[in-house]
Amino acid sequence: xxxxxxxxxxxxxxxxxxxxxxxxxxxxxxxxxxxxxxxxxxxxxxxxxxxxxxxxxxxxxxxxxxxxxxxxxxxxxxxxxxxxxxxxxxxxxxxxxxxxxxxxxxxxxxxxxxxxxxxxxxxxxxxxxxxxxxxxxxxxxxxxxxxxxxxxxxxxxxxxxxxxxxxxxxxxxxxxxxxxxxxxxxxxxxxxxxxxxxxxxxxxxxxxxxxxxxxxxxxxxxxxxxxxxxxxxxxxxxxxxxxxxxxxxxxxxxxxxxxxxxxxxxxxxxxxxxxxxxxxxxxxxxxxxxxxxxxxxxxxxxxxxxxxx
Length: 309
What we know:
Structural class: alpha+beta
Distance between the termini: 87 Å
Strand order of the largest sheet: 1-2-3
Number of helices: 9
């Protein structure tokens, strides 16, 4: 604002030395730039960046041009980032101390920790690590805190155990499927790949990461191939069944046939006939074409309370 006196609401956070430097420089016509803690009308502190320039610069100044920018949020963000980095460094120091209690104690003392609790993360016969909680106060933890930490470490260890078993089972299943000398893929209802075996990956010359999650059309090539094949399979299945039977889609690229009043032996014979018919029928082929038909079995229901398969 032109020709308006500049006022700063000062408080306990305002640096008196910075304000004295500001007055001294303006008194001799020099520029001033600094950050000042000022206060709003509601009493809340504000961190303001001041840049005051005499005008005109080449002669005796007749006025000053002041640019003020509120940097409170920017500095608060920088402080939070600095605290987070410090916390990360602290965690790294404590983590690298490992299970050596002497080294761990020395590290904690250098950082400023005075008390702590360490609980093992044990699931079954495996130990996944330890859960460490520290405080800057001596004897900060009571028996109740120890019980809570034991409960928390037990829950975390159980979750890690479940994750380990899931990953171990996934790897074991992947090894078994990779050993099969056929192309195997799992496709969801959106026609996107969820799993493929090694033979499938090698056939198309792609890594698993380049296949998983992609639509089958992007792997097979021709966008119309998949739909035409599915339509052709559905038509063949419909020709093989009776009027009372029902052919329907089941999940992504699979079919199910409902055969009322049909025994297991008859259903198996029909499935074998369908497989042979499909194997003998030429279908359109996309990139890396491969023919595969799998029969997953039959299931029968004799009464509302009994299901056999």
